[in-house]
Amino acid sequence: MQTLSIYLKLRGRLLGRQLREIGWLRLLLLLPFLLMAGSKALAALAPHPLGRWVVPGLVLAGLASAHRQRADLRFLTTVNPAFQPWLAVEYALLALPVALALLVMGAYASAGITLLVAPLAAWAGAASAGRSTRQRPRSLLRSEAFEWVSGLRATRAGLLWPALLALAGWQQATPLGPLVALGVWLLVVLGSYGTPEPLTMLALTGSSAPAVLRRRLLLGLGYAGLTAAPFVWLLGCAGGVGAGLAVGLAWLGLVALIILTKYAFYPNGLQIRISQALLIAITFTLPGHPAYLPLLLVAAGGLWWQSQRRLRQVLGGAQT
User: Fold this and answer.
1) Of 187, 73, 163, whose CA–CA distance to 123 is shortest?
2) Structure letter (DSSP) for residue 80
3) Rounded to whole angstroms, how far apart are CA atoms 19 and 238?
4) Are 121 and 64 contacting, i.e. CB atoms less than 8 angstroms apart?
5) Predicted TM-score of the model (pTM)
6) Which residues cross the membrane (predicted)?
7) What is the pLDDT of residues 170-224, one digit of tens each?
8) What letters, b where the CB count within 10 A reaches 16 and e where it falls short, cover 135-168?
9) What is the predicted pLDDT for the residue at 289?
10) What is the number of other CB atoms lying within 10 angstroms of the CB of residue 108?
């Protein structure tokens, strides 16, 4: 119990340092939008007879994905080989607000299952603990699309994508299944673009900032469109062709903004992930608001300008 208390105190201090690095202004923008986006998603899923059972799976998937990419897993193994119970307590605390929200909404069984399955993420294997490069099967993706190659391997998306397709096809009579599949797949894409690649790898993709950015957008949107097309088609079958195309285009536009956000804050990984989370939260919180479209256009223009500016700085420094 004492070691668990020490571990939680260390995690609290690390969180405090990260919050200071983010800055109070970003926190004032991020936290309200994240709370509104989360509550809006829960309000849509909890009353639905099938949607409420999706929440525990989403919580477990999100925690397991974050756990597999933790940088301190090897250190924890050296400190205590049986460290998983520490992380299980931490993940249960992280899932507690979601469970309480489900309780308030009357989804009692879903709330209990959420608290039961969240600690299981502590026993997920590290992303680097898989097979060696020689033992891995050759990827069907171009090596130049390194975000997709490494990101999909880390999240085991080769297994997740068929499962999401089955979910979308099973619920094809209603738009809920395809919409949930698109939302989960967006989180997978978000995780793939949350870690900045080394500068040497970035410099190989082009000699100028506009060329690099166009190439990254072309590859990213190409693979995103190919993998999301079946979900969009099923959505069109359930909700109409026009609605399916509108959601598909909006989904691709959001992927483009995620890619631009990565290079607008390159190479600070924490700022990239926080800014992407803010972007996702705003996108899912403000639809229907009169300021939504102008704000989105301003954000897109600002990210395009900032990403090119940042790439000019880092590529210029690499060449000198």
Assistant:
1) 73
2) -
3) 43
4) yes
5) 0.71
6) 91-124, 176-196, 217-235, 241-265, 277-305
7) 866 678 888 888 988 988 888 888 888 888 888 776 668 888 899 899 999 999 9
8) eeeeeebeeebbbbbbbbbbbbbeebbeebbebb
9) 64
10) 12
